[in-house]
What does this fold into?
Amino acid sequence: GFPQSRYRISFEEKSASDGSNDCGHWRVPSDLYDSGNGDDCAQRGSDHRDGNKHIAWITIECVEKQLMLIWPFMLLALMVCREAQFEPYVGQVAVAQTVMNRVAHPGWWGVDVRSVVLAPHQYSPMSVPGDPGLTRWMVTASCQRAAEHAWRGMQPMYAPGADSFYAEYIPAPSWATPERFVVQIGRHRFYNVDGK
It folds into this structure.
């Protein structure tokens, strides 16, 4: 048997090109959880395949370490899905890019992905009490890809410089002034509020 300090994990492998909007299956970019320092947290020597499942044996210390590395990415993907699940893919990427633009210009809204996404009263489905989005935990494959592409800078800046947005079906916030307007994508209007 395996040492008691190791835990068996498995996840279904889904093709990103299968067109499904399947929720609950995370596809995390490998470089976000692979430290690359030789500690081999995934215990690759113990990996094997069981049908369509990939089995790995890992230590609980490794789980803790890897979660700390991938948690910001997971938060970003969750925010994109809560804010823009039914928007076009370009709009999903643009929503994620507002977070990355804020990270690039640290300030009152946060200094990294985690603090920006969870800042009070910024991305409302992540922090505003009573927002119905607070109870949604499933993330579509499209939203995960949008988060990854924004994180890596793999897509053009669809709303250049935008750090804020709002949905056109709600009253315009006070900061949504004409001189700050960048572009509208789907039902979201994007703005560069800090002017950077």
Summary: The chain has a mean pLDDT of 77. The helical segments are 30-33, 60-84, 89-104, 113-117, 124-127, 141-152. The first strand starts at residue 6 and ends at 12.
